[in-house]
C-alpha cells in the first residue's frame, strides 16, 4: 500500500500540513500505533525514504510551523520547542489522541522531548535521535557562544556565511574551542553556497529554530516520571560531534544508554538530498528499538 494523503490542521498562528502514509490501521491490516516521524527544521520530505521502509505501519510526517508547506500567520520570529510541542500535541489529537510512537531527528528530537514532558500520555515510545542539546554539554559556554555567533552572522551577512559556520560547528569533533567564532571560515562558494547577501532573513533554521533549539534544557524530572519509553539514538559515524554528544548527555541525565544507529546524523536519508545515509539498516535498527 503506497497511498499518501495530505491534510491540514489549523493551530494558533499556523496552518500545519501533514501526510499519512499507507494507512494500514484504517484498512484493518494492523493495530500497531501510528508512527510519527518528525524533524526540525527538516520537513516531511526528509522522511520519505524511512517511511517507505515501514509500509506495515501507518506513518505520519509533517512540516513544522514556518517550514515547507506549514505557513505561519502569527508574525513571530522564533519557534520554541514548547511551541512545536504544542503543535505536535494538537496533531496527535487530530490523529485520534494516541498514544503514538515517534521517531524524532535533530531539532525534532528536542521538540519530542518537550512534548513528552508536557503530554506523556500521547506517546508510547519516543526515539530521540541526536538532539543538539548544547546546554547540557560540559563545553556549553563555548558551544552556545558558537551558536550565537552563527545567528549574528546570519543577521549581518545572510545565509551563505552563516551556513558555513553552522557546518563547521555541527561537524566539529570534540569540545568547541573558546575561540571558535574567531577562526578563519571557508568561502561559502567552496560549499556551493551563495557568498552574496540577498537581503532575506526568513530561513527557518537560522531565523526560527537554531537558538531556541540548542538552548533548550529538557525537563528531566518530568521525562523520568513519564510512562513514555524514551530511547536516545546516536549515529555511529557522528561520534564526537555536537548533536551526538547532546544525545549522550540526554541519555546520561535519563539514566539510560544511547542506542547506536547506522551512519550519521542523517542516517535515515537516501540520496535525494545529496547526502545519503544508510536508510535500509537504519530502518532495521529503528524496528528493533520500537519492538523492544
TrEMBL record:
GO molecular-function term, one example from the UniProt record: triacylglycerol lipase activity
SUPFAM superfamilies (alphabetical): alpha/beta-Hydrolases (SSF53474)
Domain AB hydrolase-1: 56-159
BP GO terms, sorted: glycerolipid catabolic process
Keywords from the UniProt entry: Hydrolase
InterPro entries hit by this protein: AB_hydrolase, AB_hydrolase_1, AB_hydrolase_fold
Protein name: Alpha/beta hydrolase
Amino acid at each position: 500500500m503506497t497511498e499518501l494523503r495530505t491534510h491540514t490542521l489549523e493551530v494558533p498562528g499556523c496552518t500545519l500540513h501533514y501526510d499519512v502514509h499507507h494507512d494500514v490501521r484504517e484498512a484493518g491490516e494492523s493495530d500497531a500505533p501510528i508512527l510519527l516521524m518528525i524533524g526540525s527544521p527538516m520537513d516531511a520530505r526528509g522522511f520519505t525514504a524511512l517511511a517507505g521502509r515501514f509500509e506495515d505501519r501507518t506513518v505520519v510526517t509533517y512540516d513544522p510551523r514556518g517550514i515547507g508547506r506549514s505557513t505561519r500567520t502569527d508574525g513571530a520570529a522564533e519557534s520554541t520547542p514548547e511551541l512545536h510541542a504544542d503543535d505536535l500535541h494538537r496533531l496527535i489529537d487530530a490523529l485520534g489522541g494516541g498514544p503514538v510512537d515517534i521517531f524524532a531527528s535533530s531539532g525534532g528530537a528536542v521538540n519530542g522531548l518537550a512534548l513528552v514532558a508536557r503530554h506523556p500520555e500521547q506517546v508510547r515510545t519516543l526515539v530521540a535521535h541526536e538532539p543538539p542539546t548544547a546546554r547540557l554539554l560540559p563545553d556549553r559556554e563555548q558551544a552556545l557562544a558558537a551558536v550565537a555567533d552563527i545567528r549574528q552572522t546570519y543577521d549581518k551577512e545572510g545565509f551563505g556565511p552563516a551556513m558555513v559556520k553552522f557546518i563547521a560547528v555541527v561537524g566539529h569533533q570534540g569540545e568547541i574551542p573558546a575561540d571558535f567564532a574567531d577562526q578563519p571560515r571557508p568561502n561559502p562558494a567552496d560549499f556551493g553556497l551563495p557568498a552574496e547577501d540577498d537581503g532575506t532573513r526568513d530561513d527557518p533554521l537560522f531565523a526560527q529554530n537554531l537558538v531556541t533549539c540548542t538552548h533548550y534544557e529538557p525537563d528531566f524530572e518530568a521525562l523520568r516520571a513519564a510512562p513514555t519509553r524514551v530511547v536516545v539514538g546516536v549515529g555511529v559515524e557522528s561520534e564526537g560531534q555536537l548533536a551526538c554528544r547532546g544525545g549522550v548527555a540526554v541519555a546520561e541525565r535519563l539514566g539510560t544508554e544511547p542506542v547506536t544507529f547506522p551512519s550519521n546524523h542523517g542516517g535515515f536519508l537516501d540520496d535525494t538530498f545529496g547526502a545519503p545515509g544508510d536508510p535500509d539498516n537504519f530502518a532495521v535498527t529503528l524496528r528493533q528499538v520500537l519492538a523492544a
